[in-house]
TrEMBL record:
InterPro entries: Class_I_gatase-like, DJ-1, DJ-1/PfpI, Prot/Nucl_acid_deglycase. It comes from the Bacteria. This is DJ-1 family protein. GO terms for cellular component: cytoplasm. It comes from Massilimicrobiota timonensis. CDD domains: GATase1_DJ-1. Residues 1-161 form the DJ-1/PfpI domain. SUPFAM superfamilies: Class I glutamine amidotransferase-like.
């Protein structure tokens, strides 16, 4: 299994790095992909060195993840490479995950039409073709969406489960089981 997390300046670090952390703990290949540079700066001014720049090898992944954060999520939405990978993954029934404002790209790529989704409150207005759910994490067919920063770990654990690996040991190792009874 291989997962790619697409990053542009202004991404929400908690939403991106929680996925990377959880998947790497589970020994799943998870690469941070810089869309424009090898170094990206989060919406809170934290500079992150990515694993590689975007290239055609991204299409070989089993899942693509879009974090939220502004202006990162809108920058991803405006990037035709992102829209193309979303359309391609959807046609191939590969996993697509987006959190917070990230699902706006799903609307532009026309991959969420008629599907249940969640996002940061208010962004559902920009996703009229989907069926908004007021929940932390939502799954419908090959689409996984998360509400926002508070949902980041649950979003990451859901991704892990959808990739066929149980999350119980990782949750316990991270002490998450104390939070959810």
């Amino acid at each position: 299994m291989k997962v790619v997390v697409l990053l542009k300046d202004g991404f929400e670090e908690l939403e991106a790095l929680s996925v990377v952390d959880v998947l790497r703990r589970a020994n799943i290949t998870c690469q941070m992909i810089g869309m424009d540079a090898l170094s990206v700066t989060s919406s809170h001014g934290i500079e992150i060195k990515v694993d590689q720049m975007f290239d055609e090898s991204v299409y070989e992944a089993d899942m693509v993840v879009l974090p939220g954060g502004l202006p990162g999520a809108t920058s991803l939405c405006d990037d035709e490479r992102v829209i193309d990978i979303l359309k391609t993954f959807n046609q191939q029934k590969k996993w697509i995950a987006a959190i917070c404002a990230g699902p706006i790209s799903l609307e532009k790529a026309d991959v969420v039409a008629g599907k249940k989704f969640t996002c940061y409150p208010g962004f559902e207005k920009e996703i009229p073709s989907g069926i908004y759910q007021d929940v932390l994490v939502c799954c419908d067919q090959n689409i996984i969406t998360g509400r926002g920063p508070a949902a980041a770990l649950e979003f990451a654990y859901t991704i892990l489960e959808k990739l066929g690996q149980p999350s119980k040991d990782i949750r316990e190792g991270m002490q998450y089981h104390y939070l959810v009874k």
